[in-house]
Amino acid sequence: METNYHEWSAILRQAVIRVKPDYFSLPEVERDAYRLHLTSEDDFRIRQTLLNGLFGITVNTPEELDAALETFDDNQYLLLNSTQLPFQGIGKNHFFLNEFLPENVTLLDFDTVGDYARNDHRFQEQARQQEDPAYTPCPWRGELHRCWARLVINGTFHYADICSLAGYLTDTLDEAGFEHIDKLIPHQYVDGPDHGKREGKGYAYDKKLDAGGLEGQLQALRDRYYTYMQERHEALLDRFDKAPTRCVYMINRTGDNEPHMDFVFSDAMALDAVRFRNFVNDCRQLAADAEKVGALIEQEIRLALDFLAETYDDIMENFDPGIVKLQRKRKLILANEKLKDLL
Predict the structure, then answer these.
(1) CA-CA-CA-CA torsion sign (210, 214, 218, 220)
(2) Fewest CB within a 10 Å sphere: which of 39, 124, 205, 314?
(3) Structural domain of residue 13, as residue ranges?
């Protein structure tokens, strides 16, 4: 597959040639290897040229570049990200996974989304086992944690989220459930005695929960809901793994002039069928009606609210303030002077 040079702006070509003069004469495999194993020095020089060409901003060090980016609004980021995407991504859609990967690992190491998801699952399970030797690793059941991506769809730059259906559904329970908890037990955070005090080179962040005397009940309700969400996620993973439908739901979330698409994978079979190099076409081959996801979300939210209503009644009737769950006391210090505004 040859690079579509029509999607490369003159500014991007200029930036790349400045750093790697022979880039466009290299075979595709060498171009891919160079881009995805880009050194920090070359990355800085390319973005240095882009900032100057796109915005007239001159930076001379990586620190100055980072400082300039901190001032960007969404429109500036959109222009920068869309301009540099053909250099960052792979395949027909210039797919770029905006996630951390281990050293010497790139998207080129994974043919399909399923390959990436399996590898991530293996890493997470190994980390849990190292933390707790008694932990028994779980088999992979088509789980894909929500990832950020960028790609071109029908010639237009898009931001994207990719994830498994089980995760997509339980993610919606977070906002809906905790909004309902706020209504059941109204609360706020108030300044503690040490809030805003100077601590070395930083400032203490000391906020206390005030629920009108129901702090214990509120924490109990929150804890039980966290457990509920984890159990629902496990149940949904099992359900979709045992009855796979092999489909992808493409959900358009474009808003405020920021093109955005969610790609929700039903199960392991769907993940294994989609290649990063042919991402959109493969997803379209498996595309299903996105309204089905909306119906599933409504069902899960109804179940969650029923759980919260029942659990709230139980806690308010049976809560024992003498039984306090032990928690490690932590002190949070905001070290960055710029974060003082959060105090």
Answers:
(1) positive
(2) 39
(3) 1-88
